[in-house]
Write a structure and sequence with these properties.
It contains three helices and six strands, in the order E-H-E-E-H-E-E-E-H. It is an alpha+beta fold and 111 residues long. A hairpin with a 2-residue loop joins strand 5 and strand 6.
Length: 111
């Protein structure tokens, strides 16, 4: 049994702005990761804010594009059940690059 997850890292926003723009509610005190819908953190240098979600669709390009208007945004999607993964990068609202891999159809050494 696999898992589905996605992450978004944004440079140019603070934690509270990322939560608001993603339409998330702040987690209550004492909520464990198993209970939470998402986890959010930042790098020690404050350059990137990162939100992880237990859902493949969360880091879709349609969400990244507006988040990147203030700077850079990178989204990662992993769906182990069907062996699909994708990474998208946006900068100031424009797509910069992406990588998509379908291991089920293309094989493990496709990349």
């Amino acid at each position: 049994m696999g898992f589905a997850a996605s992450w978004i890292a944004v440079r140019g926003l603070v934690r509270e702005d990322l939560i608001l723009r993603c339409g998330l509610q702040p987690a209550a005190e004492g909520v464990t990761m198993e209970e939470a819908r998402y986890a959010i953190g930042r790098r020690k240098d404050d350059c990137w804010v990162i939100v992880a979600f237990r859902d493949y669709e969360f880091a879709e390009p349609q969400r990244l594009q507006p988040l990147s208007e203030a700077g850079e945004a990178v989204g990662v999607q992993v769906e182990e059940h069907v062996m699909v993964s994708a990474i998208y990068a946006y900068d100031h609202g424009r797509p910069v690059w992406c990588v998509f891999h379908n291991g089920g159809d293309e094989g493990a050494d496709h990349l």
